[in-house]
């Protein structure tokens, strides 16, 4: 992650063990990977929860990344995050990533709630979470992403799907 944060695509690919797309060193990705590298340096126990390369089977193409923003918090909440490389968008990969994340979260006894925050103008992501049982619970704003809509789904609702 540190290599990607530093813009070193070859180093990041070598560390990941797969060929990563240029998208993994765009400004937004570099910020995310830098943030996650700092998170790991501070708390190694977060490693199983944070972002990983999403690889298409059987061809092995890296189609994006997916993970959680960290381990479950004291209330049992985890937040999902996923990105599809532009050349692979609108092919079902985001839904597949989200499905895998929800299955992982539901299998963890400590998880009670899964959250997704989506920019209000990100129609593709808003469409992606439809049908997964998420309920809009509020809005939040930040300097980097602007207005985001906050959605949550109880873990027991995921297990029932």
From TrEMBL:
<dbReference type="InterPro" id="IPR016181">
    <property type="entry name" value="Acyl_CoA_acyltransferase"/>
</dbReference>
<dbReference type="InterPro" id="IPR000182">
    <property type="entry name" value="GNAT_dom"/>
</dbReference>
<dbReference type="Pfam" id="PF13302">
    <property type="entry name" value="Acetyltransf_3"/>
</dbReference>
<dbReference type="GO" id="GO:0008999">
    <property type="term" value="F:protein-N-terminal-alanine acetyltransferase activity"/>
</dbReference>
<dbReference type="GO" id="GO:0005737">
    <property type="term" value="C:cytoplasm"/>
</dbReference>
<protein>
    <submittedName>
        <fullName>GNAT family N-acetyltransferase</fullName>
    </submittedName>
</protein>
<dbReference type="GO" id="GO:1990189">
    <property type="term" value="F:protein N-terminal-serine acetyltransferase activity"/>
</dbReference>
<dbReference type="InterPro" id="IPR051908">
    <property type="entry name" value="Ribosomal_N-acetyltransferase"/>
</dbReference>
<keyword id="KW-0808">Transferase</keyword>
<feature type="domain" description="N-acetyltransferase">
    <location>
        <begin position="1"/>
        <end position="156"/>
    </location>
</feature>
């Amino acid at each position: 992650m540190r290599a990607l944060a530093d813009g070193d695509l070859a180093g990041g690919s070598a560390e990941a063990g797969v060929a990563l797309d240029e998208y993994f060193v765009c400004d937004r990705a570099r910020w995310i990977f830098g943030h996650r590298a700092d998170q790991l340096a501070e708390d190694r126990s977060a490693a199983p929860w944070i972002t990983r390369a999403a690889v298409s089977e059987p061809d092995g193409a890296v189609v994006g990344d997916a993970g959680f923003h960290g381990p479950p918090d004291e209330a049992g909440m985890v937040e999902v995050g996923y990105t599809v490389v532009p050349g692979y968008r609108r092919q079902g990969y985001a839904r597949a990533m989200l499905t895998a994340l929800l299955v992982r979260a539901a299998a963890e006894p400590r998880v009670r709630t899964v959250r997704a925050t989506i920019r209000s103008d990100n129609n593709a992501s808003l469409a992606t979470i439809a049908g997964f049982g998420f309920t809009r619970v509020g809005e939040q704003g930040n300097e980097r992403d602007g207005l985001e809509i906050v959605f949550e789904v109880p873990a027991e609702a995921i297990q029932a799907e």
